[in-house]
Structures are given as structure tokens and as C-alpha cells.
């Protein structure tokens, strides 16, 4: 009985964290409309909680999360009228490939997604981005929600075992973390880095800026 209560407590805490960081992601403009999705592994189990399809992340509540068995991909619990995110296979691919993964956040944040559609991909122009991200792998394109995309994601996660933030070609951002907070922070950092890189590119095209005699200190 104690183990059951502990399991329920872990699921409740995980669900509350997912809902909270879903709202943060929408508030930070990392997603728009009903785009994007998030999941988290329930600690000590083979289950994940994932956002429903067609629902804005700011509308996600713990009770609306869908429970999915990671090894089989089978839906264990879903609210009436709801269905798991169409990117369920992609999230499962992450957990099955990387044991340390505790949460996954997929966003369509505008600056990072723009670089996911560009060649070359995102340059890291600040020392902070270089030290924290090192590099941002660009995963190949496949149709969203497809088994092909899940295969590409699994391959990328395995190829770059030390990377936690990825760009998905023509699609957006895939951020992986040890928990919901970490996944959110990686996604937020990646968008901030992309914005800085974009502004740097604009300034570089214009040439030197600032008043005459402006010296570095």
C-alpha cells in the first residue's frame, strides 16, 4: 500500500510540473496556438505523462495529461474526449533511447524554428551559448508525428549523447531534460540563443554601428 501511495505521489508531482512548465512555455512565446507538446517520465516507472493533441499548452492541467506505457506505447489512461499528442512516437523514442531523459519539450519557438529552416543551422555567437550548448544538432526532416521522425530522433539522441537541445528540420525545437524544469530551460535557452544570433547577423550586414569614438572598455 505504501508503494502504491508513493507511486501516486510521484505521478501527481510529475503531472503538476508538466502543467506548470507548459504554461511557462506558452507565456514565453515558445509555442503558439495549440502547437507544441510536452511529456515527462514518472520517476521509478515505465510510464510517461504527455499533453493531449489539439490543446494549447496554457490550457494543460494535470488531469488532462495522458498516461502512456513507454515500452509498449500503449495508452493507459486518457480523459474523455482527449487523445495523446500526435508526437507521442517521438517522445517515446527519446525515453527508449536515453535512460537519463526525464522530460521532453517540443516547441515551435520562432527564432529557433527559423534556424531549423535555414542553412547553415544555428551559429553560437556568444560565449555562454558556446559553453552551454556546445553545438545544436539539426535533425533530418520527416513528417511531424510519423514513425520516420521518431526513428530520426532516436538516431540523433544516440549520436549526440551529451546534447540536450536539438533543432528539427522545418519543424522546431526538441529539448530533453532530466526533469520538466530542465527541458523547459533548454528550450528557453535555445530560443534566446537563436534570437541573439539573428540580431547579430542583422548588425553584421549593416556594418559598424554606434556613435563615433565609441571605444571598448
Textual characterization of the structure:
The longest helix has 27 residues, at 180-206. It is globular, with a radius of gyration of 19 Å. The protein has six helices and eight strands. By secondary structure, it is of the alpha+beta class. A hairpin with a 3-residue loop joins β7 (165-168) and β8.
The first-level CATH class is given as Alpha Beta
**What coarse outline follows from CA principal-axis ratios?**
globular
Strand order of the largest sheet: 4-3-2-1-5-8-7-6
CATH superfamily: Class II aldolase/adducin N-terminal domain
Give short descriptive properties of this protein:
alpha+beta, 217 residues, eight-stranded mixed beta sheet, disordered C terminus, single chain, L-fuculose-1-phosphate Aldolase
Task: Give a quick summary of the entry.
This protein is an alpha+beta fold. It contains six helices and eight strands.
Question: What is the topology?
Answer:
Layout: H1 2-27, E1 37-41, E2 47-50, E3 66-69, E4 75-77, H2 88-97, E5 103-107, H3 110-116, H4 127-133, E6 138-139, H5 147-159, E7 165-168, E8 172-177, H6 180-206
Parallel strand pairs: 6-7
Antiparallel strand pairs: 1-2, 1-5, 2-3, 3-4, 5-8, 7-8
Helix pairs in contact: 1-6, 2-5, 3-6
Amino acid at each position: 500500500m505504501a508503494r502504491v501511495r508513493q507511486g501516486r505521489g510521484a505521478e501527481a508531482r510529475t503531472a503538476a510540473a508538466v502543467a506548470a512548465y507548459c504554461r511557462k512555455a506558452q507565456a514565453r512565446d515558445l509555442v503558439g496556438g495549440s502547437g507544441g507538446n510536452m511529456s515527462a517520465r514518472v520517476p521509478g516507472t515505465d510510464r510517461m505523462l504527455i499533453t493531449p493533441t489539439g490543446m494549447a499548452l496554457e490550457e494543460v492541467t494535470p488531469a488532462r495529461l495522458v498516461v502512456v506505457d513507454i515500452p509498449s506505447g500503449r495508452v493507459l489512461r486518457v480523459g474523455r474526449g482527449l487523445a495523446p499528442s500526435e508526437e507521442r512516437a517521438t517522445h517515446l523514442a527519446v525515453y527508449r533511447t536515453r535512460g537519463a531523459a526525464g522530460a521532453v519539450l517540443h516547441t515551435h519557438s520562432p527564432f529557433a524554428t527559423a534556424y531549423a529552416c535555414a542553412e547553415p543551422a544555428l551559429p553560437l555567437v556568444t560565449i555562454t551559448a558556446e559553453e552551454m550548448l556546445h553545438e545544436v544538432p539539426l535533425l533530418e526532416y520527416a513528417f511531424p508525428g510519423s514513425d520516420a521522425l521518431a526513428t530520426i530522433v532516436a538516431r540523433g539522441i544516440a549520436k549526440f549523447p551529451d546534447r540536450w537541445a536539438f533543432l528539427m528540420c522545418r519543424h522546431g525545437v526538441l529539448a530533453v531534460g532530466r526533469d520538466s524544469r530542465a527541458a523547459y530551460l533548454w528550450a528557453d535557452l535555445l530560443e534566446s540563443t537563436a534570437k541573439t544570433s539573428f540580431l547579430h547577423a542583422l548588425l553584421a550586414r549593416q556594418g559598424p554601428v554606434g556613435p563615433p569614438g565609441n571605444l571598448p572598455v
